[in-house]
Sequence to fold (439 residues):
Amino acid sequence: MCDYIYSDGSKCQEAPLEGSRYCALHISFEEGEKLVWREKLEELKLSAVARKLQAGDFNFEGAYLYTFPLTWEVLEEFGIKEIEDNIILSNANVLEVIIRGREDKPLKFKDLLIYNANIQELYITNSQFHGIYSIPSTVYGILSKKTNDLVEDSNVSIVDPNLFKIEELQTLLDSNCYVGKLYIILCEGSTLWLNGLKSLTIVLSESNVTDIWFNSSMITELVLGKNLSVSNDINLKFSAIKTGKLIPPIKIGGRLYLNYTNIHSNRFAVEMFNLAKRLFKESSRPEDLDNLEYHFYREMVARRKWKVELAKEDWKITNKKSFKKLFRFLLVKFGGILEWIFLDVPIKYGTSWKRLLSIWFSLVLIIFPILYLLTGTVPGIKSYWQAIYFSIVTATTLGYGDFHPEGLGTFLASLEAIFGTFMWALLITTLGRKYLNSS
Fold:
């Protein structure tokens, strides 16, 4: 018998190839091609697959296959009308997996298990199944571009109900799942829970799904295509996304979570954070107020950076020869710096009154009093407490007149008075915005 031992402890019942301890299914490509020609090895492996399918056995754990064809044509050849078990490709190495039904008769099965698998390309079309369990597998291509015509006519339904429990969260965050291209098109009633993915191109389009979870993922390109409908939430927390696009109309019944998500493309960041902000604004839950403020702030930061990028690109188009566009770029850049100094740093675009008060107290109660004492430019001030008193009176523009600055002190006092007036205006704006959002 073959020396391969399945994860449940049972041994493979297939006969080993001559000169090897493993059967045609479990012999590696390298070892097998030393014994026979590749074409012959491929033929032996397909014959082994056919025998298992004919016996109603869909467990291909640990198999080395050039191709794994699971189509209605193949199943009907063996008199199989339906698949009642899971399709298991865990720990397998497969160059191409083809799972294909017909438009009038989708291929139905329970789950596709590809734990710890190495799969070069995975094609699924006209199929309906409960779940895809891929963590921590390596999948280099799922529904790749060369099958776009096939995908667009398909009726794929992916349902992944509550795959992971809370205690398994750390496993998800530490998972090592690599996917080249993931296309979810024309899906019905599915929960997509694929946390911890890396190096992805994800396209979600013309589908009705329940939830989308891609926490702690590294995504090269994320496309939320037209007619995408999500009943509940889209969760992309702690993820890194290089670029992407939103193609309306998109309907999201819940919320879009982008907390601690880094989106490299400022254009896409503006689109995503704006969408998230609008969804949180429509929510009536009090706990969503903080998320509304957070996503609004992230949108404004991305919008500021995007403006500078657009102006710079506009100047580069002229091969950096247009003085007018260079001047516009520098003006936008300078405006961005001022926006950062006066709106981002002190109040985070009106979302943080705590930061504003921290700055106010730090400057009025510590920085300016120390400057008045060190410079000695306010006659009569001999102690730190007197310096604090003068600083507060100056910042609030009360001006009792019991202390009169001289020389450099007049400049410091004038600067503090301007600062105090500006800070009060920002505080009123911030608190007013908080009140309006909460109501």
Observations:
- DSSP finds eleven helices and 22 strands in the chain.
- The first strand starts at residue 64 and ends at 65.
